[in-house]
Amino acid sequence: MFRLVFQKSDLAPRAIGAAVIIGRKAPADVLVADATVSASHCRLSPRDEESWTLEDLKSTSGTFLNGRRVSQAVVHPGDVITVGKQNIVLELTGGPTATELMLGVATMYNAAPVTEEEPQAALVLVSGSHPERVTTLKKDVTTIGRGADNAIVLRDDTKASSSHAIISRAGSKWFITDAGSINGTKVNGQRITGETALAHGYQVAVGEQVFQFVIKGAEASEKTVPSSTQELPQLPDGEQRSDNAGLFASHEDWRQTDPAPAGGSGRLVLVLIVLVLALVGVAGLLWMSGVLRF
Predict the structure, then answer these.
(1) Which residues does 85 contact at the CB level (< 8 Å), separation at least 6?
(2) Model-level pTM?
(3) Residues 148-196: pLDDT tens digits?
(4) Lowest pLDDT segment from 72-86, 87-101, 258-272, 278-292
(5) Quick check: 93 pLDDT over 50?
(6) 69 in Cβ contact with 63 (< 8 Å)
């Protein structure tokens, strides 16, 4: 027989033998009074005699297993399921408790397990009254709001809701979700309506606080690409670029360029022909008058 044990909560352990839905309100089987939990948040179904299948039901804030966001995963006794701010441990009744199982895993080996290094992220205060200028996001789920139970407490922000927003991590990716706040959550000036991906340099507005989301080691691109032709440098009004200007010539350079005369070589040939004809004519006159003898 299995049961669900709620950590740091007044909820009594709940015995389960068949599939159950965990959520904030009916028809969920296991109710969790947390504004950050969706109405029908996730489903837990028996898989075999030793494990269960956990499935996220397109929840707003996501479902986490042992600190990792999952859409579907296998759960064993001792594993920790996180929905909203609530941690739930799956226990096998009659066997070791969840605490004993986790302690046993932690002390089985003297060396710490080797894990892939994940990028560290933080929120840097751009404007607002929050006392912490830099807040490191150390957990996979970080709640933001005016309530004292949030990871980031905006106690003096009258425009922030008690549970305002949730920042979550899934591997190397980060997301932010509005937790049903009154004034909404904005990313880069746009109010979000669902789970929104965060990238290095994005601005996050919660209440009257504006943060910049940063990832350690990430570098902003130095190359900027104009988003439209209106951002490209324009020539002064009333001036047109010469066809003879070089490809990379500046405005000053191309104005100083003197274009070659049109048809210059043709006029030179014509002048030479006229000169030759004139000389021939003069020579003919001199010959007829007897002055010039050949």
Answers:
(1) 34, 36, 141, 143, 149
(2) 0.47
(3) 989 999 999 999 999 999 998 887 889 999 988 999 999 999 999 888 9
(4) 258-272
(5) yes
(6) yes
Tokens matching residue 215: 């990832």
Nearest to 165 by CA among 188, 124, 194: 194
